[in-house]
Design the sequence.
């Protein structure tokens, strides 16, 4: 169902789960309530794209994993943690962009989905209850973009971001 896709996408973006969880566990995860919003620059987004291109698919063997810290530094980040903050902020914007590049903040999107589910006659009572519960929880974690310019910067690089995300 559409509401599940939007709620899941919102939660994933807010949590910044662009990288495999094993990578995040090594040093850089941000929970939704701990998201550090940064003002993005062209260099941030270009560096993010370059890092994503350099990262290889995750592997369970730590000896075979690329050196994430070195890759981040190679592309202008002070550390992998800084790269992770940028990734979180890019994801936060990307989830709000529709196919035409129009941005809608997560709170508004989730509120619209709640309204749509509430009047949906094709859903059973149980489905509605589950959907409304999940969406209400997602709404609690919805964080607005602190720096509106981030939306314009991400929109500018959207085609390249779509290729690496």
Sequence:
């Amino acid at each position: 169902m559409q509401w599940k896709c939007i709620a899941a996408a919102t939660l994933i973006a807010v949590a910044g789960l662009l990288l495999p969880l094993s990578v995040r566990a090594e040093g850089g995860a941000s929970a939704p309530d701990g998201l550090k919003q940064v003002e993005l620059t062209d260099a941030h987004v270009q560096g993010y794209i370059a890092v994503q291109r350099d990262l290889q698919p995750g592997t369970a063997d730590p000896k075979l994993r690329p050196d994430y810290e070195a890759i981040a530094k190679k592309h202008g980040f002070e550390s992998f943690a800084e790269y992770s903050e940028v990734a979180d902020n890019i994801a936060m914007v990307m989830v709000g962009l529709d196919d035409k590049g129009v941005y809608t903040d997560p709170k508004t999107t989730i509120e619209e989905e709640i309204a749509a589910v509430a009047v949906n006659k094709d859903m059973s009572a149980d489905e509605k209850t589950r959907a409304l519960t999940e969406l209400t929880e997602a709404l609690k974690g919805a964080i607005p973009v602190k720096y509106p310019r981030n939306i314009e910067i991400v929109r500018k690089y959207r085609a390249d971001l779509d290729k690496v995300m």
Residues 2-18+36-164 form one domain. Confidence is low (pLDDT under 50) at residues 7-31.
